[in-house]
Write a structure and sequence with these properties.
heterodimer; A: about 260 residues; 14 strands; globular; B: about 325 residues; alpha/beta; elongated
């Protein structure tokens, strides 16, 4: 069972994130980056499948030089090897272009993966559409938001918890599955894992390596153009009262005053 | 006039309010046509016409319900090709976003998800999204002029503009790819009788401070006819189902009123609720970051504050 896990290097959500004025892309210069928290669940799930079914786990990322940090964490957790697609022309790529880059990089993998795993969304863009766009480009079935994943002979079975029903979905392999944060508890890299990661192979591929033309990706080729961005105006400081036995009544009075009751 | 396709969200022909919102938005950028998938299109035709639908494309094939979203995207791509639609509007549900993602790749249209507003500006489609945990507002336009847009609930007040829609059946056969994933079992969720979380006008949420006892949160919510949400801490502890989780990895809600009870207000939770119009918090910890966001806050024990507030709300209603 060969598994590729797509991971993203993102600006820390705890920090004040903003856009760069020059080209209206995410400003990465003033904010520390890290492996998107939601991708750790995909890495963990890949490792669990590997432990049960053998095979190899490859971690794939697209991004600037610093993005190697995201793959490093995955290698420390136990992934076998990493591929980092890096090229200046990639800057500003939107979800459509990102899915194209991932698809072409996956097409170059040898052997081809049986399973493509991703997190449910990145913690920066949070659109959650790259997994499905990638599956569409690869011609694969996609099962998104998996909260349970079982691999059987030539197929995967996935539990998915929706608003109306909890569903079981079966897809034939090869397939793409995106996982939620309900699926497992990601392991911390052990000292042994950290040491071993240093010796693991990391391939760095350029656009030409994966057969993508610079004109197909980056800011200039994005399917949507950001016209403007604006910080949300700070909320006005509200009224805060200490409960002195009448906190509930004060709360109800506020609701009445603002016509909620 | 340019055609705008609207994917109808319905349950056995009963059209959801979000579809009326989408049709209202569609009229700003072109002439809306509804796409109705499944049974009972007749039951839906009245309401779709009331909100200005010129045509209703409909298809009731088992392939559309058995095989996840691929057939829906294929059918929509077929209609985009036939109508040269300038935009396709889809509800911003997990399934809707998936249909949109596949459709955008198939059509080469720009993709915008979770739009909170869509306008026509000098003949261009301009969408508004709230990003970075609600701290920024971004306006975008499709680079090539046309777009697939998923729209969040409550993004526009539905306005009627009656039309006589023409019902057009669609011939459709799903591809082999569509058959590679299928739903093999489905167990319906228990109905709470409360409003749906993402559409509710009022949401009352509980967190770690409930200690696992949501009864006071639920009683207060019921007095306000509100939906009940939960923080990730409460969900991870197994106190409330994941489908009720408000936050980055759960539901994004934007109600008229949000009441956070025993929730500290981590960035992940704020990502899911900080665009709420009015915010109230009840928390024992006066240092809790949630208080930075509130219009009104009570520093106190939710087990004392909420029952008192519930009684006061009930008695004010007589």
């Amino acid at each position: 069972m060969n598994i590729v896990v797509c991971v993203k290097y993102v600006p820390d959500a705890q920090a004040d994130r903003t856009f760069s004025d020059s080209d209206k892309t995410t400003d990465r210069s003033n904010v520390a980056g890290l492996l998107s928290e939601l991708d750790e669940y995909a890495v963990e799930e890949a490792l669990k499948i590997k432990e049960a079914h053998d095979g190899e786990v490859t971690v794939l990322t697209i991004g600037p030089a610093e993005a190697a940090d995201a793959t490093k964490k995955a290698l420390q957790m136990g992934a076998d090897k990493a591929v980092h697609v890096k090229d200046d022309a990639i800057h500003g790529s939107d979800a459509g272009a990102t899915s194209l880059l991932l698809a072409r990089a996956i097409a170059k993998l040898d052997p081809q993966p049986d399973l493509v795993l991703t997190g449910m969304a990145s913690t920066d863009g949070t659109m959650g559409v790259v997994p499905t766009m990638l599956a569409e480009r690869l011609g694969l079935p996609a099962v998104t938001y998996a909260s349970e994943l079982t691999v059987t002979e030539g197929a995967v079975s996935v539990r998915r918890d929706g608003d109306l029903a909890s569903q079981t979905i079966e897809a034939s392999l090869p397939a793409l599955v995106s996982v939620t944060d309900q699926i497992n508890e990601p392991r911390y890299p052990s000292f042994k894992g950290i040491m071993a990661a240093k010796k693991k192979p990391v391939d760095t591929w350029s656009l030409s390596d994966i057969g993508v033309d610079a004109g197909e990706v980056g800011l200039g080729s994005s399917w949507t153009t950001v016209e403007s961005f604006a910080a949300r105006p700070p909320r006005q400081q509200g009224t805060i009262v200490a409960d002195e036995g009448d906190g509930g009544q004060k709360l109800a009075a506020f609701l009445a005053e603002h016509k909620f009751v | 006039m340019a055609v705008v396709l609207v994917l109808v969200d319905h349950l056995d022909g009963k059209v959801r309010k979000t579809t009326a919102e989408l049709l209202t938005i569609a009229r700003r950028i072109g002439e809306p046509s509804s796409v109705f998938l499944g049974a009972n299109v007749q039951a839906a035709a009245d309401i779709l016409g009331k909100y200005g639908s010129q045509k209703i494309y409909h298809c009731d094939s088992a392939e559309l319900t058995d095989y996840l979203v691929v057939p829906q995207a294929e059918l929509l791509a077929q209609l985009v090709a036939e109508t040269s639609a300038v935009a396709v509007l889809i509800p911003s549900t997990p399934e809707g976003k998936e249909v949109a993602a596949r459709l955008a790749v198939k059509t080469g249209y720009g993709l915008v998800t979770d739009a909170v507003d869509v306008q026509s500006v000098d003949g261009r489609i301009v969408t508004t999204q709230s990003v970075f945990a609600g701290s920024y507002t971004v306006k975008s336009t499709p680079s090539k002029g046309n777009a697939v847009i998923t729209v969040k609930p409550n993004s526009a007040p539905p306005q009627q503009q009656p039309a006589q829609p023409e019902l057009t059946p669609v011939d459709f056969t799903a591809s082999d790819l569509a058959r590679t994933a299928r739903i093999t079992a489905s167990s319906p969720k228990e109905k709470s009788g409360r409003p749906e979380l993402t559409e509710a006008a009022i949401v009352v949420s509980g967190g770690r401070g409930t200690g696992g006892d949501f009864t006071k949160v639920e009683d207060f919510a019921d007095s306000l006819r509100a939906a009940v949400g939960a923080s990730r801490a409460a969900v991870d502890a197994g106190w409330y189902p994941h489908t009720s989780q408000v936050g980055q990895t759960g539901k994004q809600v934007s109600p008229q009123l949000y009441v956070a009870c025993g929730i500290s207000g981590a960035i992940q939770h704020r990502a899911g609720m900080q665009t709420s119009k009015t915010i109230i918090a009840v928390n024992k910890d006066q240092e809790a970051p949630i208080f930075e966001l509130v219009d009104f806050g009570v520093v106190g024990d939710l087990f004392a504050v909420l029952p008192q507030a519930t009684d006061a709300v009930k008695s004010s209603k007589g």
